[in-house]
Design a protein that fits this description.
The chain has 181 residues and is an alpha+beta fold. The protein is built from five helices and four strands. Helix content is 34%, strand content 13%.
Length: 181
């Protein structure tokens, strides 16, 4: 399960005298920032839309209490799923324009961890993430992996990218310098 963040080539209009080509390292920096924001929001108990997650069922609350876990819904029991989330793939996008964009896929790993109670292994992190995101017939969905179309994260990503572009400009991007990985 992954979320893809795509920054299109035509993000910056009217800069035909400059070439802005992001590197894979810069794409990964943006992806890690976004994943950090998703982790923070999830730990605060909020979904992609900013609403509180659906409550846990009473039987699961008892299980959490038995294992000294909080009753607040933040999709964390051991921390393994959220902890495994990072940039899975980054690629550069270049369609011949003056701006080279990028794509970043973020999400949890497919790692299987030992069961909390030590018996066998639990499902892989990406499976747990999928079930939490979309729910089952016995569990309400709790959409956590994703970004709202508007809001603070989108503005922060734009600021980060703006700073990267400013640095490139200072280093001579306005002289048709290309930046590659």
């Amino acid at each position: 399960m992954k979320v893809k963040l795509t920054v299109p080539n035509d993000l910056i209009l009217g800069n035909t005298d400059a070439e802005f080509k992001f590197t894979l390292k810069e794409a990964k920096v943006v992806g890690e920032f976004v994943m950090g924001e998703i982790r923070e929001r999830t730990q605060a108990g909020k979904s992609v839309s900013g609403k509180r997650f659906a409550s846990y069922k009473p039987s699961y609350l008892k299980y959490r209490q038995k294992h000294e876990r909080r009753s607040r819904v933040n999709l964390t029991f051991t921390g393994a799923m959220l902890g495994s989330c990072n940039v899975r793939k980054a690629s550069l996008v270049n369609s011949g324009g003056s701006f080279g964009g990028f794509r970043v896929a973020i999400g949890p790993s497919a790692t299987q961890m030992p069961n909390y109670e030590g018996a066998g292994t639990r499902p892989p992190n990406n499976f747990i993430a999928y079930v939490l995101q979309y729910g089952t017939k016995h569990m309400l969905p709790r959409p956590w992996l994703g970004l709202p179309k508007k809001g603070k994260v989108a503005k922060d990503v734009a600021l980060i990218m703006g700073k990267m572009i400013e640095e490139k400009w200072k280093k001579g991007a306005n002289k048709k310098t290309t930046f590659s990985n």
